[in-house]
Amino acid sequence: MERSAMRLTLFTDLGLRTLMRLAGEPERLFTTEEISRDLKVSRNHLTKVVSDLAAAGFVQTRRGAGGGFHLARSPETIIIGDVARALEGDQPLVECFQADGGACTLMPGCRLKGRLAAAQAAFFRELDGMTLAECATPRPKIPG
Q1: Nearest 10 degrees: CA dihedral of 89, 90, 94, 98?
Q2: Where are the alpha helices (DSSP H) in 92-136?
């Protein structure tokens, strides 16, 4: 049997790591090439993450020569829970949390759904207690 835990998607993980890196040097303009190299991830995947971060208002992008992206606001004002909610989108924790109720055969008599909803709320409450400034990642050290 496969084991799983309440967790964020890899997409959200990459979004958080990107923001943490930007928060380490909040005044600086970064390129997707640079961040993808720092985080050792695909540039194409990072481009989609940055696009979603920009759409959610966490980063600002600049096109053209000398372009790149940077934090849209101070890291002290960016709440980690808000980022996770924005990037997770409509990912249901379990099937019965889907808008249409999914295909759960235990509904409406299930007594677990309420506890799972409470656990999910507690998970996000914990993330709501932390700002991006608290988990900023400093510039990577260059060997040599």
Answers
A1: 180
A2: 113-128
List phi, psi (to 5°) of 30: -110, 155
Q: Is the pTM of this model over 0.90?
A: no
What are the backbone angles phi and psi of residue 62, rounded to the nearest 5°? -130, 125
Q: How far apart are CA 74 and CA 77, in angstroms?
A: 6
Per-residue pLDDT tens digits for 26-52: 889 999 999 999 999 999 999 999 999
Token couple for 92: 């249901």
143: which residues sit within 8 A by CB, 6+ positions away?
none
Look up the CATH number of the domain holding residue 60: 1.10.10.10
Going by C-alpha positions, the residue among 86, 93, 79, 89 that lies closest to residue 127 is 79
3 within some domain: no
Amino acid at 115: R
Q: What is the DSSP string of 44-61?
A: HHHHHHHHHHHHTTSEEE
Domain span at 36: 10-135
